[in-house]
UniProtKB/TrEMBL annotation:
Keywords: Glycosidase, Hydrolase
Protein name: beta-N-acetylhexosaminidase
PANTHER family: BETA-HEXOSAMINIDASE, BETA-HEXOSAMINIDASE-RELATED
Enzyme Commission code: 3.2.1.52
Gene3D superfamilies: Glycoside hydrolase, family 3, N-terminal domain
Organism whose genome encodes this protein: Bradyrhizobium xenonodulans
Domain of life, source organism: Bacteria
Amino acid sequence: MSTRAFITGVSGTELTAVEREFIRDQRPWGFILFKRNVDTPAQVAALVAELRAVAGTGDAPVLIDQEGGRVQRLGPPHWPVYPPGAIFSSLYDTDSALGLTAARLSARLIAADLADLGITVDCLPLADVPVSGADAVIGNRAYGTEPGKVAAIARAVTEGLEQGGVLPVLKHIPGHGRATADTHFKLPTVDTPRDELERTDFAAFKPLADLPMAMTAHVVFSAVDPAHPATTSATMIAQVIRSVIGFQGLLMSDDVSMNALSGNIAERTRAIFAAGCDVALHCNGNIEEMREVAGETPELSGRALERANAALAARKTPQPFDRAAARTELDALIARANTASA
């Protein structure tokens, strides 16, 4: 069955009749969940199953942002708290092997939580490299400020997710670390020279170019394209994401409804595809906006379809795993990191 090249959110913990009709008619490639969609494990699992049943595709990807720290859509009392990326960075500085172990364990535990619910994609890892003076939207979510370390920890996170049968989404390509505004509210412009960007921001993504999926940054890089954020910049996608970084997987936009993008929802969606993104992402569950996105979204076909199929095919069978032992080990490593930074 053919699908359309967008990922959509829904409004609540159960599908409405209108949403069921929309999904059947518009055939989104995938779905994304947020806190508004989460109550109990049984409820989330039922919602995930219903999304796939209504879509008529048993392998439709269901995404979530489950990083740890400030960005956890699943949390207490039903799911544990996970550490922010800065914890892995701190451990890495003490002992690089321990930092990578903690990152891998955390991601493996997250993958187990997601697999219990039928969620198959996590919007993780981050390869953003923050700098002094940048907006706090990345902050302690980052794995450090040195590209090589960031890439190494991101790879360990990827391995943990993959070991649990969950696909990773690399974000926010080609880098959100220098942004001086939160792109949920405003468009930031980065005026750093291109050679410096290639040495730092872009360099953190290059070792991860083999990942199956990546999410764009709603950030203008004036040295490459002063007029458009990366998400809607054909120059940025062709020259930097696909060439300098070398990413050849499925490229999805960050959320269409974020205020960093200009124009109405339909105009933003057209611009995303015109720039070279494979899939548009719409998150807020507003049915009128969902219809606008669907109205401007093509069938998933050609190279985009090949990348989408390759991404889904990259999902691995979960490996044997002692969840209790892994949690005990992770907690011990977190305590060590907290002690070291005290």
